[in-house]
Amino acid sequence: MNDKINLAAMRINYKAEALEESNVMLNPIDQFEFWFTEAVNAKIEEPNAMTLATASYMGFPNARTVLLKEFDKNGFVFFTNYESCKGKELEKNNNAVLLFFWKELFRQVRIKGKVEKVSREASETYFHSRPRESQIGALVSKQSDEIPDRKYLENRFLLLQKEFEGKEIPLPKYWGGYKVAPFEIEFWQGRENRLHDRILYKLIENNWKISRLSP
Q1: Residue 143: its pLDDT value, please?
Q2: What DSSP character marks residue 106?
């Protein structure tokens, strides 16, 4: 490692509003919507980018960044290739964690939940709302499979672009949406002296219980 880079000394003293049990909303989805709207209004780049953590059936963890495309009281939706590494892991183990990090606001939201596929109709609607090039890209890529080189992708893209010229691009059977139905959501607000605010919502018998965690 470069001797000039002192990782131990890298720190920011967060100065932000307090996050109190008395001023959060009773439902974490409402609280998420409030914070998400503030992130959008703050013009944070890709505020819907989230880390998706999964685990294999053997318990080995994995993580990658995906994009949130919908959310409501029932959960948080993203779309991907069902035959990808994450798809295969979710097939065997449907527990997952989502993490949003909005560094400009010194905020994180961590969501634990069970994952299930959305309806085929919902996947069709979203797929055909995407740019045409992205739809073709979904057909081109056998996500997570090894390929010989970049040219392989580019050639397949050109071939499919020509094949579907003037036609509707079909939704692949292996592509669609997942919904993360939460049972635990934590809101983290960075504060001074590393005394951060952590408010946890836990779903207990269909009711959300709110508690504070030590930083």
Answers
A1: 85
A2: T
Give yes or no: residues 123 and 136 share one domain.
Answer: no
Q: Amino acid identity of 184? A: E
Work out the pLDDT band at 131, boundaries 50, 70, 90.
Answer: very high
Whole-angstrom distance between the N-terminal and C-terminal Cα of the chain? 30
Query: Does residue 190 share a domain with residue 141?
Result: no
SS (H, E, C) 115-172: EEECCHHHHHHHHCCCCHHHHHHHHHCCCCCCCCCHHHHHHHHHHHHHHCCCCCCCCC
Measuring CA to CA, which residue among 188, 190, 192 is closest to residue 200?
188
pLDDT in tens, 70-129: 999 999 999 999 999 999 999 999 999 999 999 999 999 999 999 999 999 999 999 999
The set of catalytic residues is: 194
Alpha helices in the chain (DSSP H): 28-41, 85-92, 120-127, 132-140, 150-163
